[in-house]
Amino acid sequence: MIDVPAGAAPLRVSFRAMSYAMRCLVQSLCLSLCLALCLALCLAACGTDNADVAGDYTITLTNRDNGCNFGNWTSGASSAAAVTLTQSKNDVSATVTGLGAVFLEVAIGGHIYDGAVEGNSLDLTLFGTRSNTMGNCTFTFNSEIHATIDGDVLTGEIDYLSATNGNPDCAAVASCRSLQDFNGTRPPR
After folding, report:
1. pTM score of the predicted model
2. Where are the alpha helices (DSSP H) in 47-173?
3. Is residue 1 part of a domain?
4. How many CB atoms lie within 10 A of CB 43?
5. Does 3 reside within a domain?
6. What distances in angstroms separate CA 23 from CA 32, 34, 37, 115, one per listed residue?
7. For residue 158, what are the β-bridge partners?
8. Residue 179 lies in a domain
9. The domain that contains 84 carries what CATH number?
10. pLDDT digit string, tens, across residues 78-118
11. Residue 26: helix, strand or coil by DSSP?
């Protein structure tokens, strides 16, 4: 029995009952811990099914809409490009080489896209650094690659989008979008 102040009702605790309560609590905690561990293992296993996209690709590009009015762009015209994809877990970089790199450097200010693979889908972005002006409008072009891989075949589209300072002089380029479809292959794995 535990000593209690005068006037208070005595508190009696059965050690047998406390032991049972403690056993239930420990069992409940163990069960919760096991469930959490199983969930963590399942999530870790699910996160490893991203495609292996690394490799040297030969890409065929087909020009589509030219909403940004890039020079020397003919809708329906095709061209070739070489791209090297490097991968670390789900992080992916795409380095464009050759004449494709020259075009990107002139139009956007870079030729290396960064992004991620999720499952067999790739989303990569190249943020423009080449500043353009039109009156009081200052803008760059960004480029996004949205692709899927099936074995050694990569297909998708490349979007070229403007990013402006919001000045009214930007009306001609605000929200412009130029688009290329592409497909490419790498040597078999």
Report:
1. 0.74
2. 98-107
3. no
4. 9
5. no
6. 14, 16, 21, 50
7. 145, 180
8. yes
9. 2.40.128
10. 999 999 999 999 999 999 999 999 999 999 999 999 999 99
11. helix
**Same-domain pairing of 73 and 143:** yes
Q: Are residues 21 and 87 in the same domain?
A: no
Please give the Cα distance from 181 to 158 (Å, whole number). Answer: 6
Query: Do 64 and 149 share a structural domain?
Result: yes
Helix (H) / strand (E) containing 182: strand 177-185
40-87 tens-digit pLDDT: 444 444 555 999 999 999 999 999 999 999 989 999 999 999 999 999
Q: Is residue 62 part of a domain?
A: yes
In this structure, are 72 and 18 located in the same domain?
no
**Number of independent structural domains in the chain:** 2
In the block, tokens 């979008």 appear at 177
Which residues, including other chains, have CB under 8 Å from residue 166's CB and lie 6 or more apart? none
Helices (H), 72-171: 98-107
Locate tokens 């050694």: which residue?
152
Number of neighbours of residue 34 by Cβ within 10 angstroms: 10
